Amino acid sequence: MKTAIALGGGGARALAHIGVLKVMESNNIKFDYITGTSMGSVIGALYAMGETPEKIEKTLKQYFSEILFSKMNLQKMQDENQVTSARSLIRKAREFVKYGSQEGGNAFLSHSILEDLVNTIIPDVDISETIIPFACVATDITNGKEKIFTKGPLRKIVLASSSIPGVFPPVQIDDVWYTDGAHVNVTPVTVAKMFGADFVLASDVKSKLKKLESLPTKSKDIMNRCNFIASHLFYEILIKQADVIIEPNIKNISWSEFNKFNLMVNEGKKAAELKIKEIKNKLKQYNAPTAKCKRFIKKVFNRKNNNLKAALY
User: Fold this and answer.
1) How many CB atoms are closer than 10 A to CB 219?
2) What is the largest CA-CA distance in the chain?
3) How far is Cα 257 from Cα 274, in angstroms, rounded to an integer?
4) pTM for this structure?
5) pLDDT tens sequence across 16-49
6) What are phi and psi of 148, to 5 degrees?
């Protein structure tokens, strides 16, 4: 039986994946495949390269707390002032996403910020060289389709998958422009299934569909609301293909609140601990002789069916 974990996108909320992976490691649950989208691709790439959740946590925490904000030309501050500096950046990012840039351009930040993170923490290898097979999702903005990367430069692929539209510029790979994979597959369960996984665990950190307290007064807000509803319903259909879904209690936290690092990790850990019994039970069921026999028959049937389709078309 092949197992996989799908690590979803969500900006800072994706830090909860670290807590999820900690619980899996402590319970000796290993994965044959890893799939990731956006910030989930950053953590997924590190885990696929053999990094422990503890090492991933230490690396990312050091980067976000000591390097990230200074790279953005903000005054380096300590203690409470450093938190204020972080909040200032977050506020500016939110304002850009909401109102756009008065100076023009296609992004709030240059790629040097994100590229520095990726190049600092992720090794310069081909994605096919990871210790655990890893697939990364990005959005092809030229044709609007999902791109699943299983070969090519790992750093550039993760950069493309993580490039939030409007915040970071698109990334060009082989003459095609890519951006954040969360717009086509926010928690890549279906990609794990395509990989050949029999059991898929989803770590879902997408934003919550909030109930409106009052009707928006601007037409663009109503349009944005309807677009979000459509995408949310689409994602709910995709994620139902997972065998177990872990949903940390962080849905109302903004993608930009990296200053809540510890909260994200702890919430991921708590959510995973609540699901660990279910995960173990389902893995046990999947490993039962009857279940193995059914999967074998299904694979044989699908292979014959695919051969028939190939002959017909």
Assistant:
1) 8
2) 67
3) 25
4) 0.79
5) 999 999 999 999 999 999 999 999 999 999 999 9
6) -105, 115
